[in-house]
Design goal:
The longest helix is centred in the first third of the chain and has 18 residues. The chain has a single domain, classed as Rossmann fold (3-Layer(aba) Sandwich), CATH 3.40.50.1360. It has 251 residues and is α/β, with parallel strands linked by helices. Helix 1 packs across helix 2. It is 30% helix and 18% strand. Strands 1-2-11-10-7-3-4-6 form an 8-stranded mixed sheet, with helices on both faces. Strands 5-9-8 form a 3-stranded antiparallel sheet. Bound molecules: 2-phosphoglycolic acid. 2-phosphoglycolic acid binds next to loops. The site of 2-phosphoglycolic acid has 6 residues, from loops.
């Protein structure tokens, strides 16, 4: 692992050879927090990026090293509308990759409801729930190739609250790999806003693969701009940036 420092910036990035190493490093941070605070609030992300971390957390739980019995989880986002029993929903993804393999009670799972009658009403409900919970202790974050975090898509403003959003064409193309055909990819989602992400006590930002290199460069080295939503993390006081060689290749 090597550390990259950025001139004039208060943060650095850790660069690893493999995504498995990132998974182990990130899991150590989460399991340490879990041991200190068994009722921690854990913010979670979907996508390929956090899968190695989730694999490590499942392993630690199966080995009896940690328990999620008293944890509450808060997912960043969910497609809208979506059949939440489908494995293509983010709830389905979380069940398959984490929830079904750990001792987390069902009632402790929080995620926007992709089957709600009205996306805006559901976004407001989720925002209220997040706000009442206070900041999560650790928020896991990936980054889109368009610089999004959660589904906070590039635009001319940071949206503070949970909101319904259209997905960019880039996101639809990126996510089409999970679907039979691009026409099946949902075009809308409900996402945690930038406010809840910035309220997290710690963010674990993970980026792997060459297709993230430009977004990572924009997020970490340029001035913060809503055109690259992840760049707001430059102002988060406690974000750990974990990259593989490819995602770090333009730094
Ligand atoms: P990915 O998605 O992990 O599947 O690349 C990351 C994201 O869109 O935030």
């Amino acid at each position: 692992m090597k550390e990259i420092k950025f001139e004039g910036k208060p943060y650095s990035a850790l660069v690893f050879d493999t995504e498995e190493e990132i998974g182990r490093y990130a899991a150590e941070i989460v399991t340490k927090k879990l041991c200190e605070k068994p009722d921690m609030l854990l913010g979670l992300a979907t996508g390929s990026t956090p899968v190695p971390l989730y694999r490590e957390l499942v392993k630690a739980c199966k080995e009896g090293k940690v328990s999620f019995k008293n944890v509450r989880t808060y997912n960043l986002d969910e497609y809208f509308p979506i059949d939440t029993k489908s494995p293509l929903s983010f709830l389905g993804f979380m069940r398959e990759n984490l929830f079904d393999h750990i001792d987390l009670p069902d009632g402790a799972i929080h995620i926007p409801n992709g089957e709600a009658a009205d996306a805006d009403v559901e976004a407001a409900r989720y925002e209220k729930e997040l706000f009442a919970a206070g900041g999560v202790d650790i928020q896991v974050l990936g980054i889109g190739s368009d610089g999004h975090i959660g589904f906070n898509e590039p635009g001319d403003a940071y949206i503070y609250e949970t909101h319904a959003t259209d997905l960019t064409q880039q996101t639809i193309v990126d996510n089409s790999r999970f679907f039979n055909d691009i026409s099946e990819v949902p075009t809308r989602a409900i996402t945690m806003g930038i406010g809840a992400i910035m309220r997290a006590k710690q963010c674990l930002f993970i980026a792997t693969g060459k297709n993230k290199a430009q977004a990572v460069k924009d997020a970490l080295t340029a001035s913060a701009t809503p055109a690259c939503q992840a760049s707001i993390l430059q102002f988060h006081p406690n974000t750990v940036f974990l990259l593989d060689q490819e995602a770090a290749s333009l730094l």
